[in-house]
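Tutorial, part two.
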Amino acid sequence: MGNWLLPEGFADVLPAEARRIEELRRALLDLYRTYGFELVAPPLVEYLDSLLSGAAGGDDLRLSTCKLVDQLSGRTMGVRADMTPQVTRIDAHLLNRAGVTRLCYCGNVLHARPADLLASRELLQIGAEIYGHSGFEADLEIIRLVLESVEVAGVREPRLDLCHPGVLHALLLSDPAGPALGGAITLLLREKDVPGLGALACEGLLPHTVQALKTLANLYGGSEVLEQARRVLPAVPGLAESLDTLQALVDALPQVAMSVDLADVSGYGYHSGITFALYAEGWHDALVRGGRYDHVSHAFGRHRPATGFSLDLRKLAAGLEPAARARAVRAPWSADPSLADAVRALRRGGEIVVQVLPGHEHDQDEFVCDRELILEKGAWAVKAF
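Running the prediction step on this input gives:
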């Protein structure tokens, strides 16, 4: 094994791809600023207690977090696996504002283990969060920002998949044995394991709850699923409100390709309202994930409703068309001060100028030198090849 080999799940980013990723980062952060989002940059490493305190039901996040010992304090620290809890801490504990706060971020996160066989362990996470408003309007703004983000990136024909954990929550609260079996039920629903759900009758669930869960596992498809759910699910407290919120979102985005999967409860312990995932051709998994998480800020001593999204810029760039090579000006190497002035002026004007070092030809694959800086009649001028 050579010393140059990287650990499994890590990869170098080469020039053309790195440029594409950086261009996406700048374009998206500029977009978020036009919506009024403020940029924050939390640290890569924090004490583990702080890093995980905002992760409601955060067993998955705990397993994904790499741990190390702080040599100064002896306390356990963690390398962040998700930036959302950090941004929530900033809103609740440092900014401490009373009204609505819009925050965005971009930074590297590290996973102790990959999310799936094709996933990287190092992600460049970018996202945006709205704090301080519990109404549907904040969810709608976040989803509109997601749709504009992928449009800016050049993603074609995105499809939005919606869910609301309040549907399952309402069903479980209507059964005395429901809350204690929530973890097992979410796993079965995630796999759409109808026989497994049927076996829960032996665990103490009431027969009508078991039947409702089996029905829930098959409630996925177009927006008509919402009306179907009203007909076939029991009218327990809280269920209609969750379906109403989903319907309002569907009605507000009539031009968006959309599906509903009421059994997609992978964030059941974390999310408190609408959840969504955005899919597109060219990516094997969800490209963007997000939703409402009103309970996370409780760990930081405040009750701040929150909704947001995040995506991996490396993953986004990998599914896009290769970036076009940049046009550049080729310049000779010379000690002539007038040449240095000419090169400086071109660069200040936004041109890429590649000076060819003595004894070398231009061999940088990322640039196309279609013009040349030459000395003509005592002055340096740009001429096309």
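Residues 326-384 form one domain. In part three we will examine how such features are distributed along the chain.
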